[in-house]
Amino acid sequence: MGAESWLYWCVAVALALTRSVGGFLMEGSPTSFAQYPRWVPGANGSLEFEFSTREPNGLLLYTDDGGSYEFFELKLVEGSVRLHYNLGGGARLLTVGRGLNDGSWHRVKVSRRQDRTHLTVDTETESRVMKALSPNFGTPETNSFVYLGGLPLLLTRQVGSRLTLPVVTLEPRFSGRLRGLSYTNVDGLSRSQNIIASQGVREETSTGDCDRHNPCLNGGRCYSGDQGTARCDCSQIYYEGPYCERERQTEEITLRGREYVWWDLRRSGGQPLASQSDQLTLSFKTRHPAGVLFFSGDGKDYVNMALREGGVLVTLDMGGDPLKVTVRPENVRFDDNKWHTVSVHRTVKEINGHTSFCTLAVTVDGLYSKKGTTAGPFSQLSSSRLHLGGADVPALLPGAETRSNFVGCFRKVEYKADSVKLDLIRTARQGSPLLHVKGKVDYMCLEVEAGDPISFTTQESYLDGPENGVVKFTRPDTALVLPSWEAAEQGSVSFKMRTNEPDGLIMFNSGTMAAQGDFFALELLEGHLYLHLSLGSGSRRVKATNRRVDDGWWHEVTLNRDGQAGRITVDEGANDFTMPGDSHRLDLDGALYVGGLSAGIEVPPEVWAGRLGKGYVGCMRDLVINGVPSDLASFAKKQDSGSIVNFCHSDGGSCSSNPCMHGGTCKEGWGRFVCDCSQTSFVGPTCGKDAATLSFDGGQYVKMLSAEEINTQAEDISFRFRTNRPVGLLLATTSNLSSDKLELALQAGKLRLTVTLGDKDKVVHVGNGLNDQQWHSVKLIRRATQISLQVDNEAPTLDHTMGRHSILQYRDLHIGMIGNDSNPRQRPASDSIPAFIGQMQSFYINGKYVFEMARAGHLSRLEVTAVFGRGPQVVHHPVTFKSRAGFVALPQLKAYSTTNIYFQFKTLQPSGLLMYNGGKGHDFLALELVNGHVHLTFNLGDRPIRIRDNNKMALNDNKWHVVTVSRPSSLQHTLMVDDNIATVTNGGGGSDTLDLQGFLYLGGVPPEMYTMLPRHVASRTGFEGCMASLDLNGEAPDPASKDIPIMANHVYPGCEGPSTKCHRNACANGGTCVQQWNSYSCNCDMTSFTGPTCSDESTAYEFGHGSGLVTFQYPEGRWPDSRRDLLALGFMTHQDDAVVLRLDSANSNDYLELEIVDGNIFMIYNMGTEDHPIGEILSKVNDGMYHVVRFIRSGPNATVQVDDYEMREKNPSEVIQLSDLKTLKKLRSGIWHGHQLAVFNAQSRLQIGGRRSKRATNIERPFQGVVSGVVLNGERPLDLAAERDPRVEVQGDVHLLMNLPRDLNSQPPADSLNPWQRTPPLPGPSPGEGDDLVFSGAGSGCDMDDEDECIPEFDTGSGDDLITPVYIPPTQPPMTKPPPRTYMPDREPGPGGRPCDDEDCYIGSGSGEFTPDNGGMPDMDGGDDTDLEFNPTHHPMLAPDVIHSEEHDPTINGGRRKDPGSGPTTPSRPDHAPPTSTPTDTTTSVPPRTPYHPTTTTYSPPTPPPSLPQPPPPPEYDYPDFYPDVFNNNDVSTNDDVIKKDNSHDRIHSEAAGSVALIISIIAGALIIVILIILLVLKIKGRQDAQYKVDESKSYEGMPTLQTPMINGQGNGTVKPGDRRPVKKQSKDVKEWYV
Predict the structure, then answer these.
(1) Helix, strand, or coil (residue 428)
(2) What is the mean pLDDT of residues 1290-1296?
């Protein structure tokens, strides 16, 4: 040995001695370790050393038996020392100490005493007994070295063969100081040990670069390299770089359902990872609702985390009771293709030596958390297997809750078990010897496109276009359509399939003639795969499987054909076949259907699944046609993306939830459940719909007609019947070309089946006593020559037909009896069987429910003479939308090629969105309520189509209604509501598929979506009410279940009716209560009030003396045409003449005008033909009190009501009435004749407070007073004026009132007369306060302003030339307002009737009372007064409009009239005396209601007034040329030199009043001198249209007024304040006459 070698050895020994005695420092670098000699403890050995550190985690010591099963592992776990060991009886854990990473020295000792192992840290000891398989710990030859602080890199790369505990290589390396390692071996002697190899170890006293300057950032660990320079370890943090200065890129991985990450330590013989606490954190993104996320376990101990139905499910089993924790928030799903972070934390706390307590916490996105606990005899969770994203067979993983692997992306997957911290994606990408990757993965997140499976979710699913991937057919009525298979000489098809359903058509491609020419088909029957192939010279049916393939596993199918020879292989089993005949070519024409058939496609009779209407439900992937892959997923997206999805799993419907109602039988399908309702009286996907029931009386039938003969080899028929007849024909087939038949009949109470194929008959009898008037179920299945017949729940009877024939040929199918026009060849046999008498329901044949389709009108070639019945309506799975803002989002409606929607609803709301599903491009489907009717609107891509139900009544009646939407053919759509069907047919030429996408919204859509709905959808609010019994193309979701994707607020399970209902006092002031679902609202439009209960004052404006106007203008060009007008307003005034409101047309003479004339309210309207007046003359409105006017026009007809008085009606006829003619003259209105128009055209301007033409500057007949609460057709112009709306202009003396005054009488009208001109008050009650005057002067029989057309007749009478007034003491005001009296029809005078006298018959004189039926008051108390009667041809409601005497009208009959409050009166002449009149026109003044004011009455002498010219009407209000020229705006009724009147509240503006004054002046001219004298001493009341003389020289006899029943406050009852009526004196027969 040279000098240098000796020197090196001496230095090494000296260093080793120094380290063994004085200790050393371990840097904790990725490669640091200290290797010591082997330890062979035997049965009583020990090992001890000391450590000091500041790090909470790190490997202290490891040794094993060389790869078998025994090992010792000491490590720091969060500041505690944990011993993980195995002596052959299983791994165990011992934990001692806490907070040992304090930088102080701590002594650790591990000792073994036979089966007991001790762990001592300082003075604390824990021990555990474990039966050892061998008394010795390995052998000196095989045991590994003892390693402190870590393991050499070479050893970590050979974990499969060198290490007993392979996961020790994942432990963090120790960083700190170690010293004093010593063993006690089998000899019992303790010896100090020296390092024999090391790396990253230096003397305790030495310093390195890390001690002088630590360059590592973000928590990186600093250590000295081989050259002594400082380096940074970033492996335990999320940073990288030389100094851990930059953030590490997040690790991502994409899995497509076949790939996964895994380890299996058992395969290499390694011991599992054991831990007392685990924490898993991962983020994922997927569109798939199910799949394995993570699995870790050993044997029966495991933790399994998976996606199921869009939620996270974690299952834990540690030897105790299995624990399941599910995080599936309501209305939230995690399969929304967004990133979600899941954290799972498991901790174990030992209670005693035999029992531990485990807590499992699961958190998703930091928002949704669930916890679970379990107890048992466990202390740790072992993990020898680990899977991320799936397994070869995920269903075989312990605790599996899904059969699918994960499809999507993972990122940042971190698994921490005690001190082991593992980044799974990073470790897999770097190539760990422990962790493996199955399949080819992408270490980035990619959208999963090509190569994905697709699922056919229904038996109607099928495919459309050429591409590749995996699809799932979710429905049996969907399919994908691919280009035709080009395999004339040779060709190949291969794919993989997976399902658990036994039947379904997988592929079909027809030739030029589907039934006779070439074709290719693959179908699944009773779990076996069959190939059908025809080259035109004969077909071949090949059974391709020897064992069933409906087991839920993937199976690979390959078909190769070359000429007439071919082979079909399923998995490893192959079947060769040879085609019959001479043809070698397969000439296919048309589409290749995958998964099912499109509507209208016929298949050969040999293809049973196609004939029976059964499509494939399951998954398909890796379709390769002639060596070219076809992307099925891409086809699914382009076609029926709702029914065919691009993932594969069987999760979905489950019979465990008992979905089948009413006794239906549930059967598990592929991702769905299937309900058999044949034993019930219900149909539908969950047996929730009433089955259509038909009654047969022996002469009624149902007949299914076909355009041509049908050839079949398979039939599925089921139905229910009940009868009390022992004999009857149930069903039979007939043919025009063949003697084949299939017949089911009752014979002697038994069911007899007769099948004739060719010339052979087969008869089968089943059942007994079936004519017991009970429901019985029949099920018939035929497959070629095999027959199965079953009645009720009895065992099926199996049999075979005779002969070799297997095809049944028929044209028509008869139910109940055979019609008279059927084939004579078949009638004799069937005629021997009487027709069926009884009931049948649920008739099903080859995929069609015949009775249901017949009731919905879906079968065009169907004759039904039997009668449909309807039982009690059944409602299931109801849901209540309590607000119009509520909605439910369901999965996309699967209505690509067929549409079948069924549901029930009830509501009180007339409008709202029931259902909406958007689509690709312009496609959409919407169901909505519009004005109480259901509207179906949809677009197939070419143009929108709308269907409205044809129900006569509105559907918002709070009753259940049934809605059925169907698509019998590609061009026909039907909407059936209850039993009424509406049908629409497309013109064709466009698309025939409905490409929907996104959610199906029920009850509404999110608020932000309403503006984005197609413009053809009218709804802008949701549905409020109940909805139930959903059937969406064969699926019956529960809208209130927790599994639906989105549910907004205000949606609740069950159906709750209105919680708050309308009641009598709900709305004040006559408001209309409108019942809503959760409450009620008040419609205040016709009240003049506002507020929630119509009790708040509306906006009010005061119109002062200076005149003013409020004008509302409709926008230019947006003038509404109205067939119906509604107007209401309130007002106060003292005026007896004014225009309150006027509405004009923009382009015609149409108008409405509300006027006050003679203190009465009138409405005049004209729709283009003539002016129609309507008003209330029995109530004065110029009393300063608040009055409400309501006017309604419907076409030419109208009503008006003032306050609570009786409603007046107007129903104009073609010929103008005489009364209307005179009233129109009085109102200065135009007169037209002809047809009554109904539409107010182009409403443009509303004026309030008067009227002014466009070219005028002055306001005509301005209104003075207060107007409030104007509502015209929903518009509130005064509210708009207060809001300064630009459409409203306020001009003149008009002011907004903050509060509505009580009345206008608080400021009495200013009187221009001097005090000496006023009549002094009389003692006692004031004569003018509430007095009523009775006047004679029934008049000349002329109207007050039509003297030019009337010749007066005079009656001399008794010569009395004076009018004698009668004073009556004031009547006490009433306590309550009487209710309105109902309208009564015309009637003739009763027995004892007599003609009225001149006083009783004049309308407007005396009491002025009218009956509601003929203008007069009914005789309520048997008095002998006379009533006024009109001619029966005169409309009774015109009575209030007549202001003239009709004594001389030959069409008017005399009547009887009674004055209110008066007693019996003495007739002034015999009954036979003819009525007479005087040439004096008289009008009665009625004082205001409250308070009372003195009334001064005078008579004017008949002095003719000066003749004044009459100005023409304003240009804007044109009148016809033939209008009588009788109006004068400047008539003067008194001499201004003698008397002047100035009353600011009662100004004279009425031209009609001027005309009255003119007539009075002409008639009373001879008495002018007397009037001038009387005017000096009498008080003047400001009413120009009624001036009377009061003879002060006469004494009056007072008579109390009797309170009698009253109609509308007008006589016959309590007299309203201010509405007093005159009575006659009882003591004297008073007759007043003019000289």
Answers:
(1) helix
(2) 93
CA 954 to chain centroid, in Å, comes to: 19
The Cα 588–Cα 1323 span in angstroms is 120
Q: With H, G, I as helix, E, B as strand and everything else as coil, classify residue 800.
A: strand
Strand, helix or coil for residue 671: coil
Mean pLDDT, rounded, of the chain: 76
pLDDT, residue 108, reads: 96
Q: Are 875 and 1054 in contact (CB under 8 A)?
A: no
Residues 704-728, mean pLDDT to the nearest whole number: 92
3-state secondary structure 487-511: CCCEEEEEEEEECCCCCEEEEEEEE
What type of residue sits at position 1067?
C
Q: How far is CA 140 from CA 63, 66, 195, 486, 715, in A?
A: 12, 10, 18, 73, 80
Q: What are 136-158's pLDDT values in tens digits? A: 888 888 888 999 999 988 777 66
Q: 446: how many CB neighbours lie within 10 A of its CB?
A: 12
Per-residue pLDDT, 1554: 55
| Eight-state DSSP code of residue 631 | B
Tokens matching residue 1227: 């109102």
3-class SS string, 443-470: CCCCCCCCCCCEEEEECECEECCCCECE
Beta bridge partners of 578: 565
Q: Which residues pair with 362 in a beta bridge?
A: 344, 370
Which two structure tokens, joined as six digits, stand for 542?
């090949």
Task: Tell me if the pTM is above 0.70.
Answer: no
Q: Which two tokens stand for residue 1496?
A: 């001064």
> Partners of 751 in the beta sheet?
746, 766
Q: What is the pLDDT of residue 350?
A: 77
Dist CA 1343 CA 47 (whole Å) = 135
How far CA 1351 is from CA of 253, 397, 1337, in Å, comes to 111, 115, 16
Which SS3 state, helix, strand or coil, does residue 3 take? helix
State the Cα–Cα distance between residues 1484 and 1403, nearest whole angstrom. 10
In the numeric block, which tokens belong to residue 1568? 């002018």
Exposed e or buried b per residue across 145-164, where buried means at least 16 C-beta atoms within 10 angstroms of its C-beta: bbbbbbbbeebbeebeebbb
CA angle 59, 61, 63 (to 5 degrees): 125
The model's pLDDT over 568-584, given as tens digits with 9 standing for 90+, comes to 988 878 899 999 988 88
Closest among 1223, 1449, 1239, 1244 to 1340, alpha carbons compared: 1449
Cα–Cα distance for residue pair 1142/1153, rounded to 1 Å = 4
Q: With H, G, I as helix, E, B as strand and everything else as coil, classify residue 368.
A: strand
Burial of 1255 (0-12, 13-18, 19+ CB in 10 A): exposed
Beta bridge partners of 312: 307, 327
